[in-house]
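hi! just following up on the protien thing from before. the input was this:
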Amino acid sequence: MTVTALDPKVALVVIDLQNGLRALPGTPHTIDDVIARTVRLADAFRARELPVVLVRVASSPDGSDAVPGRTETSRGGQTPPAGWDEVVPELAGRPGDITVTKRNWSAFYGTDLDLHLRRRGVTQIVLTGVATSIGVESTARAAHEHGYHVTLATDAMADLDGDAHRHSTEKIFPRLGESGSTADVLALLAETHG
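and the predicted 3d structure came back as:
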């Protein structure tokens, strides 16, 4: 895993670090560790006036915007508690940050994420968040398909399933971009963006 470059117009894209997912048993990193590492990255991006995109997953109370289709895994169907879809306080509420609400796994499908990035001239994204094999991987795939350079801070993401996390980081991510640690991204950011 090597992060070799950060484009002049790079954005941090944070997937689903929100109140309702905070209590999940993340692996191989705890959700609190993922949040802490993502906060370090977000602070560094903000200090350099680089875009920070906070993606949250939400649905309408009546479920009318739920993704249709039969699956073998239950989707729950319960009404989530109030505030479950709000970005965690450690990341929320910073002026200039972009918030994107998604209804699907990918932060690109059915949202204005691509529009926000292109209007700012962004050519590369750094991804963090949960779950590695679902929201993060789906967004990485879509970013690659949209022509963005993709960097994955693998110690700033977690999954519910260790095997799924490993599969994404070892088999899928090398085909979509470059992976490294939070420290790797921060060091390269300091070197290339002052």
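The longest strand covers residues 149-158.
The first helix runs from residue 31 to 47.
cheers
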